[in-house]
# Entry
Amino acid sequence: MSLDVIIITGIALLMLLLFTYMFWRESAIRNRERPAEVYTVIRCGDGAERRRKYQEGDYVGKPAGDCAGGVIIGIFKEVRQE
# Structure
């Protein structure tokens, strides 16, 4: 076996180990993240604001049936603090 093949094989193994470590570290960090809640803010016709959990299809400006004259004015994500 020539020296070139041994060097290329060694470099390939080192790169494989590096990518495996990077993947493992990224997955470990991702598992520690707290889940976020997504909320929709609705302004009613009388000026009052309500907050509810996000529903599929919500967008800013969409009329909301939660209260009379309600319109979605914001969507935000909130992470629970422990």
About this structure: The chain has two domains: 1-33, 36-79.
